[in-house]
């Protein structure tokens, strides 16, 4: 499960970095890589990444668990999603997960 989460994050991060920048430093993607300083990910790119990951992983750790300003490295991003998914597996009521999914869909429609 952890490997799948990390692979999904790395794949989507690479996709966002390459969007419009074919010379993006995707070879530098590692847990220690800083999102902005090392990889050049700006706030718009981070927002795109979070939206894609929310679709793929069905989780938004920044809604309640982790302040997005605390995410500076790829490892921070891994940890945020791993903790969100662990919390969900630990027994959050299905109704809460469904409510979050509906709220996410509403936000997407408002766009």
Strands, helices and their partners?
Blueprint: H1 2-18, H2 43-57, H3 74-89, H4 94-110
Number of H- or I-type helical stretches: 4
CA(first)-CA(last) distance:
31 Å
CATH class: Mainly Alpha
Order of helices and strands: HHHH
Q: Overall 3D geometry?
A: globular
Structural class: mainly alpha
Radius of gyration: 14 Å
In CATH terms, the superfamily is: ACP-like
Q: What's the total number of strands? A: 0
Strand percentage: under 5%
What kind of sheet is the major sheet?
A: none
Count of domain modules: 1
What is the percent of helical residues?
55-70%
Q: Kindly identify the CATH topology.
A: Non-ribosomal Peptide Synthetase Peptidyl Carrier Protein, Chain A
State the low-pLDDT regions, or none. Answer: none
CATH architecture: Orthogonal Bundle
Overall pLDDT score: 87
Key terms:
Non-ribosomal Peptide Synthetase Peptidyl Carrier Protein, Chain A; mainly alpha; single chain; 4 helices; 111 residues
